[in-house]
Amino acid sequence: MNFNEKAGRVSGVSNIADEPDELDEALTEFRLSVYAWSEAAYSRTRTAVVPGRRRIWRLAAGWALGCVLVAGGGSAGVWEHHQHQQEMRITAARVAEQQRLAAQQQLWQEDEDLLAKVDSDVSRQVPAAMEPLGQLMVGDETR
Amino acid sequence: MAMAEEIGAEEFSAVVARHRAQIFRFLLASTRDVDLAETLTQDCFLKAHRNWKSFRGESSAMTWLMRIAINLQKDHWRNRRMQFWRHARTNAVDMGEASEWLPSGERSAEQQLLAHERVHQVSKAVEGLSERQRTVFLLRYVEEAELSEIARATGLSEGTVKAHLSRAVAKVRAELGGRQ
Questions:
Q1: Touching check for B16 and chain A: CB below 8 Å?
Q2: Which residue range forms the structural domain that includes residue B147?
């Protein structure tokens, strides 16, 4: 096995090219820092946390509360939406009724106008030749 | 599990004890994530145990283990790229953090500061290397492996290893040059 296992060996990294001293030094320092970092991470204490019963209850309560909040929020949204839809329906019905009344009013007005026009036209068109007959009728009635 | 019978439990424990720290160190330097490095180290030895039969002894056990570690690390990054929503490297630390661990030795405060700065620059350059360049660089300058061993561990030819290494060194040199 040729991989070097001796941590902290300082020299002998350059054989690719003649590297300047500073590069050689920097690479050595880099290696040392990686060795130290790795050793510290490798030998750190690891703790396995076993969740206790209280923690499980807390977790369950948290989930339950979360579910209630989510369900509450959802149903409030649905109710709000339903109310809004109902208001929209009532408003639409009211507007339709008003429009219907206005249309009916307009029809009546048109009928009134038409009748008035007919009356006035009929009264104007009584022929003048009929007037003597009218006078006779008046005479018969007085007799 | 039948394959695992090829190596005895005690013998394999000895292999683990001998090489685990080095595999972990390489994976830590590559991934910069302590938890991930530990997981991949475990996976590496698990895979080695399962496939011990396929280890023909042509290379050293260390080289073979290193090859498994490199492949595991490659697979990890490949899978990670697929998971596009996991772009953020949650546990990975800045490579420059390694410079925090530089042993002080018997140097003056100024020398320590300079060394710290140099390590930071090298770390920054290593972080910017391609995956293959970084692997080759770390094997050469951290694990101090021979070119032939690096070639065997990475599955590359020695010429390719040299080319990757020289590019990596050039980048590190440029980073250090920028500091001056």
A1: no
A2: 94-180
Q: Does A41 map to a domain?
A: yes
pLDDT > 60? residue B32: yes
* Minimal CA separation from B20 to chain A, in Å: 10
Which residue, among B128, B121, B19, has the nearest Cα to B65 in the 3D structure?
B19
Average confidence (pLDDT) over B66-80: 87
pLDDT bin (cut points 50, 70, 90) of residue B8 is confident
B50 and B131 fall within a common domain: no
A1 is in which domain, residue-wise?
Answer: 1-45
Q: Cβ distance B47 to B68 under 8 Å?
A: yes
Indicate whether B63 and B75 sit together in one domain.
Answer: yes
Cα separation, B136 vs B101, in Å, equals: 23
Closest alpha carbon within chain B to A31: B142
Statement: the pTM of the whole predicted model exceeds 0.80? no
Q: What's CA A9's distance to the chain center, in Å?
A: 64
With a cut of 80, say whether residue B91 has pLDDT above it: no
Domain count, chain B: 2
Inside any domain, residue A113: no
Average pLDDT, chain B: 83
CB-based burial label for B67 (10 Å; 0-12, 13-18, 19+) = middle
Kindly state whether residue A40 falls inside one of the protein's structural domains: yes
Q: What is the pLDDT of residue B65?
A: 93
**Closest CA relative to residue A1, chosen from B19, B62, B57:** B62
| Residue of A2, A3, A39, A47 to mutate, testing the B interface (most B Cβ within 10 Å of its Cβ) | A3
Using a CB-CB distance cutoff of 8 angstroms, which residues of chain A are in contact with residue B118? 22, 25-26, 29-30
Is B22 in contact with A3 (Cβ distance < 8 A)? yes
User: Among residues B32, B67, B93, which one ends one of the domains?
Assistant: B93
pLDDT at B4 (0 to 100): 42
